[in-house]
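Notes from the 1:1 (GR / supervisor)

We went over the backlog. Supervisor wanted to see one worked example end to end before approving the batch request, so GR pasted a single chain during the call. The sequence is below; no edits were made to it. Supervisor asked that the structure be written out right there so they could see what the output format looks like.
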Amino acid sequence: MLRISGKTKALGLLGWPVEHSLSPAMHNAAFKHLGLDCCYLTFPVKPELLKDAVKAVRALNLTGVNVTVPHKEKVIPFLDKVDKEAAFIGAVNTIVNQSASGGDKLIGYNTDGRGFMKLLSEARISVKDKNVLILGAGGASRAIGYYLCRSASKLFLYDIDRKKAGKLISALKKIKGNVFSYQQSAISSQLKDIDIIINATPLGLKKGDPLPVDINLLKPRHVVCDLIYKNTPLLQKASKKGCKTLNGLGMLLWQGAFAFELWTGRKAPVEVMRKALVKNI
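Structure output shown during the call:
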């Protein structure tokens, strides 16, 4: 059990809702393991109160916070500085309060993309010379696309909102010109050229959600990833088809580990954090 004192440094998660979050278990286990006098809490912040919540980070001298839906994009105008990666992605998932260590700025970062690439690396999945399909064009897609377009042979994007997908494709093409639109009308012909499929949509969170891809078109050579950190119906069915599958738990772990290191300057105890996540899922 954590011991709270007058010297305890507070961190937390800004989101709406946040009750389901596994981040407190992960970070508090890490603090305890390293003997750091810190605690991590969840802060349910209604969208209309986001600006006030960010002011509170400074006013209460919080060491830092994570940011989750629906605030990742909207928090940016309230920060003093945003690093290059987060600025491109257009979303922040980690805020470091420099004032807690003698500075005077709130700085925004995005560790989601690095977290996903570390997940792939751990699973010994390389995207080099591979064709990758991302389903969904939201903030998570921007974060992972920022890295994937640099390494993949070709990166394809699909979103039911074509305008949204088009904007992301245009942005990623400024990094590398290997990014293309994926047309649902040609799914049967296009999927045969895809090596790695990534579900970055919410489909699979709720019971009865439709599958984001036609299972009948999957082959054992396909790698199927879902950013949802549970074993979704997509992953269950893809596994039965002989595909290698990955859920988003590893991404949650590694984005948290990178955030931990930004806040503390200490190497994250990854295996301790992983154990806490698995125990509490």
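Supervisor's comment: The first strand starts at residue 9 and ends at 15.
Batch request approved.
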